[in-house]
Amino acid sequence: MTLRDPRSFTCVYRIESPLELDVAASILAGEQSSGTFVQVPGETVELHERFGARVIAVHDAGRTQPSLPSRIEQREVSAGEVTIEFPMEAIGTDFATLLTAIGGNLFELGDLTGCRLESIDLPPDFINAHPGPEFGVPGTRRLIGNSSGVLVGTIIKPNVGLAPDDFRSIVRELTRASVDFIKDDELMTDPKYLPLSERVKIAQQEILAASETTGRQTMYAFNITGDLGGLRRRHDEVIKAGGTCVMLNVPIMGLPALAWLRSFSEVPIHAHRAGLAASMRHPALGMSYGVWQKLVRLAGADQIHVSGLGSKFYETDKEVATNIGSLQLPLGDTLNPLPVLSSGQNVHTPEITYASVKSQDLLMLAGGGVAAHPEGPAAGVRSLRQAWEAAVSEQSLPVSADRLAASGDSALSVALRTFKKP
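Request: output the structure for the sequence above.
Response:
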């Protein structure tokens, strides 16, 4: 008799069901492994024992109204958390197979009016099968010139539609503002009016020219999202021009695409989360950020978006702080990726961010916070660095602004008047 593989993936799901929770959990486990709704030939006890997912814990949280629609109408359902164990032999080390097992048809089961994957415990053999980030925090800092403190970055705006000459002007202004990092917008891929090859050429020319004046090597994350067949070609275009970072919209392209990019990428991979909220925002559906980031880290992302404290998006500041903290936890022997703050960041957000996470290993992307500064992008960048210095030293932001203004630098005081406090 072949014994069951002792290695396993352990998943905690928050579920709702008109059935008793232990019954619903068994249906979930069967659907996602060796079972089906009716007995079929070859479905033996031995097969179930070896390959079937197991329910190992059920915690009932009481009755609630159903969160999601279903063909099974019910006014009240049972809610709680269930822990399911999947044997590694049934899944292996492939990302697509893992996601199909832990996050596939279970979301469609009529017997579940809520199903969310809250956490996953990965076996060491799965973790060790994937390289994780090649550069992470230290590699990113090294390529930017070993900058200390929080890295300050921005996004090319307008998002789309810029002609080559307009694009050049914006990059020239931003690189001469001594910004650490610039990225394409997630909507900017490889359009005919500004192809990636031309965008890379222009940006790298301006980065090099600016570095001779500022002494700072700005990193630019070029968005190479697009058809899978052209992914390597687009990466190579960036490398050939001397680029130091590529960007991928990971929820759109998928973990296998990210893992493939990691297998040949010569520069850090900037992982954008565009599309993630479709599977994460509803508390009764999809998966948590904590689960997603583990898999994205293992697939090779060096920089990962976490949203932002005081942002324009839906996550609370507490949730964003938890997102950041999850990237700082160890995951086997892999490097830690750089958390990327975005969405409405300005001079008011460093204070609440540092108070929550007590870390400077962060990349803060501020679009309007840089470009919309009345004294220009250079003042925008400078004001953000000054706001971070005040936050880390626990100094009052208005007091710091007044002190700097008295010495002739009004960047921070003007920014405080210009940008709203979240």
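The two ends are 63 Å apart (CA to CA).
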